[in-house]
Design goal:
The protein has about 325 residues and is an alpha+beta fold. The chain has 5 helices and 12 strands. A hairpin with a 4-residue loop joins strand 11 and strand 12.
Length: about 325
């Protein structure tokens, strides 16, 4: 006898409705997941900067000053002068991950061997240092192809070596700020003003009101107002080499000038953009939505809104202007 029981299943319309509901749920959940991931990355970036701030204070407690911007084998730039070290190396011993950096912390490895970019240090400078990398910054966190010194008699930059790898660093110190409000350029002394010992007592505007270290993320690529500069741009190679490359690796200068820019980040010394304009030289730039992390001179980490009033932003970099910063 035939089985008279009816067989039930999904109709095509019902199946399409279910698929549509699942698609809507995924579309609703995806932004929340992405936001949660970015929140975790931003928290890690904040922790990195807290460690760097503590390391700066540990160095200051030991030596009575903050680490120098850069140290050279000679009196200045040019042939025969090697970049020995930079602040990123001098604070290794004060970071909480001492065992990881025992080899890197051997200062004797850097002078007399062509400096940071010397041939004998090529394995050290390709080492990724997680505390110097913001996880929100896009990869690959390294340059492939870089200048190399094979002897102390070479120019400071040496010759280009297409096989050399340099790991990047996303945190920077401002050696000075050049600001033009339409009445002419002003040079402003930052907390870590270069060519002179920098001490806490020099920060007369207050350590909680003055920026010590900030993000300059995105190397090896140049970015303008949230967009990478296309490699097809006729100025791409020049900008990448002259504006990003020599300050992008953690084993490099990691200090230069900050300037005010136009809103698109293309024109310097005009406009009211100071944060997230571009990542050229030492300009504050981050991949966090709406702003940039900084370490203040008291060691605290603050998130600076990219639309901050330009006067307030300039005051945060100025260590001795006597102005009242207010809310930021």
């Amino acid at each position: 006898m035939a089985d008279s029981r009816s067989r039930h299943g999904f109709t095509l319309i019902e199946l399409l409705v279910v698929i549509a509901i699942i698609a809507v749920l995924i579309s609703l959940l995806l932004p929340a997941v992405q936001q949660a991931r970015e929140a975790a990355r931003r928290t890690q970036c904040t922790n990195n900067l807290k460690q760097i701030g503590l390391a700066f204070h540990g160095f200051h407690d030991t030596f009575g000053k903050f680490p120098d911007a850069s140290t050279f084998t000679g009196p200045g730039f040019g042939a025969g002068v090697a970049l020995e070290r930079t602040w990123t190396i001098d604070i290794f011993r004060f970071l909480e991950q001492d065992n990881r950096y025992v080899e890197l912390d051997d200062i004797e490895q850097f002078p007399d061997r062509g400096g940071l970019w010397g041939d004998d240090n090529r394995e050290l400078v390709r080492t990724h240092v997680p505390v110097y990398e913001c996880p929100s910054s896009p990869g690959p966190h390294e340059f492939t192809g870089f200048n190399n010194r094979t002897s102390a008699s070479q120019d400071i930059f040496g010759e280009f070596d297409e096989t050399k790898v340099m790991a990047t660093g996303d945190y920077m110190r401002a050696r000075e700020l050049i600001y033009n409000d339409g009445t002419g350029n002003r040079t402003i002394k930052t907390a870590l003003y270069w060519n002179a010992d920098a001490r806490l007592r020099d920060v007369t505007d207050g350590t909680s009101n003055t920026i010590l270290i900030h993000e300059t993320a995105g190397a090896p690529e140049p970015y303008y107002a949230g967009r990478p500069l296309p490699s097809s741009d006729p100025n791409y190679a020049s900008i990448r080499q002259n504006q990003v490359e020599w300050v992008g690796p953690w084993a490099s200068y990691k200090h230069w000038r900050v300037r005010n820019y136009s809103a698109d980040g293309k024109t310097a010394l005009t406009g009211t953009c100071l944060f997230n304009c571009n990542n050229l030289q030492a300009q504050p730039y981050a991949f966090h939505t709406g702003g940039c992390n900084v370490v203040m001179c008291d060691g605290s980490v603050q998130f600076i809104n990219e639309n901050i009033d330009i006067t307030t932003g300039v005051n945060l970099f100025d260590r001795e202007d006597g102005g009242v910063v207010g809310e930021f």
